[in-house]
Amino acid sequence: MLRVPEHQVAGHKAIDGVLGPLVDDSGKFYKPLQSDHRGSNEATFYETLSSIPDNIRSFFPVFHGIKEVEASDGSGLHPHLVLEDILAGYDNPCVMDVKIGSRTWYPEAAEEYVRKCLLKDRESSSIHLGFRISGLKSVGPSKQDPSSCWQPHKKFLQSLSADEVKLVLSKFVSSDGNADPDSAFACEVFMPVLKQLLELKKWFEVQTIFHFYSCSVLVVYEKGERVMNGKKAGAVVKLVDFAHVVDAKGAIDHNFLGGLCSLIKFVQDLPSGVWESVSEDEC
Amino acid sequence: MLRVPEHQVAGHKAIDGVLGPLVDDSGKFYKPLQSDHRGSNEATFYETLSSIPDNIRSFFPVFHGIKEVEASDGSGLHPHLVLEDILAGYDNPCVMDVKIGSRTWYPEAAEEYVRKCLLKDRESSSIHLGFRISGLKSVGPSKQDPSSCWQPHKKFLQSLSADEVKLVLSKFVSSDGNADPDSAFACEVFMPVLKQLLELKKWFEVQTIFHFYSCSVLVVYEKGERVMNGKKAGAVVKLVDFAHVVDAKGAIDHNFLGGLCSLIKFVQDLPSGVWESVSEDEC
């Protein structure tokens, strides 16, 4: 039985007759294969995932192939990428989708596409910050209290100033939904996030296989306890959306790397309270 | 007595009635102040240099103020920035000018300027590599032999592929002008270059004061012995051209940082012969 994902924060949603992603109860995510080159490009990318080193491959959703399933828009059977559902197993997930890179268009793109992307990059925070937040959802300690859910509007999130990003990040990891975060809690969330972002950065400093355009970093954590393999599970960083991955032709992905470093700097710059209990070595 | 610099590899040259930079015998470089906002912007930047940490300030030419001197185009007295002449004291300098960043236009620029820069970024290697080589001059061991001087055409340099960059870098540090460099010699040149680029990178990962658009990294070394303070002087990395430096507004300069990391990767990827005698710690 396929259903609409409960916690999707960016992209087309499979509601009101729109073609969008679906999930099942076994932890799989069904992403409709776009009919043009974007679909084949994303499928091809997932098929080459095995060429990526093990420690980095874990940042990508597991790929289970392509399958024809009933489309959410009622148009009948449609090929879907079958992926790991990153949010399976969460009760109260807090999710943030950050589109990385000051440039979302790739060199070989059609002029009309370049024009549209450039306009969006200039209107949003991408040109200034090297990234834009595409979606965010944060829940309070109790899921039953709807007032404790914070899901700012996309238009607001996409064009934040540097100061606003700091506020939004603080609020994303606050234990009570206020902008002044509980430092122990925020540190518990952002420590593993920072560690994972720095590991990604190391890879992007050297990899000359792919250039990732319009790709997002997804940050997910459980508001409350989440146990995995008998241990409390920490925040997770994943990469999603590979419809615009192109051949690196021998150069590093300076566009992604620059944006990633910018995001890292914001995480490191969280109000001093967040990090003050943490030693230099750990952060 | 002011004269035309002998080893300038990029920018307007003070010949044939053109307004361009001049040098004197005391080691000063006179850069005509552009009459529009670019001139005042560059002057303002040099005046704020003191706010930059000592170890990083040494990457910038020393600033000696603004002075009216006879312009090279015969138009009479014209205000010039008086700067350190980076090439003073060299006999056979090899020089490379690398314009850093995949984007050379800044967010607030006029539309016509954005359009022109974007076109140039797309036609050159900037979009793909995150930088373009704006000029290069390499001399053989003997200055008296003109055949030993290699100064490729700007059009060729600006639009190199990744493989061509590797060749050009190899040739830039070869002891005999061939693309297969003498590894000991090339290592001697590029070791201090890599060290300085990595130091710059560290600063760009954290500084949120300036965004440097259309700024260049200049790499200079002496083909032959150059003694400074009784010691053999190694290759030097400098930053030049600050007419388009803007307020960072709280974000790191992801555009410059990305391009810088791309250049660093090319230096690290020089043919294995260059680095094989060098331990991991040193490189």
Automatic annotation (TrEMBL), chains A, B:
An annotated GO cellular component: cytoplasm
One GO MF term: inositol-1,3,4,6-tetrakisphosphate 5-kinase activity
Enzyme class: transferase
Keyword Chaperone attached: no
Pfam families in the record: IPK
Catalytic activity field: 1D-myo-inositol 1,4,5-trisphosphate + 2 ATP = 1D-myo-inositol 1,3,4,5,6-pentakisphosphate + 2 ADP + 2 H(+); 1D-myo-inositol 1,3,4,6-tetrakisphosphate + ATP = 1D-myo-inositol 1,3,4,5,6-pentakisphosphate + ADP + H(+)
Recorded superkingdom: Eukaryota
GO biological process: inositol phosphate biosynthetic process
InterPro entries in UniProt: IPK, IPK_sf
Enzyme Commission number(s): 2.7.1.140, 2.7.1.151
Protein purpose: Inositol phosphate kinase with a broad substrate specificity.
Family statement drawn from the similarity comment of this UniProt entry: Belongs to the inositol phosphokinase (IPK) family.
Record protein name field: Inositol polyphosphate multikinase
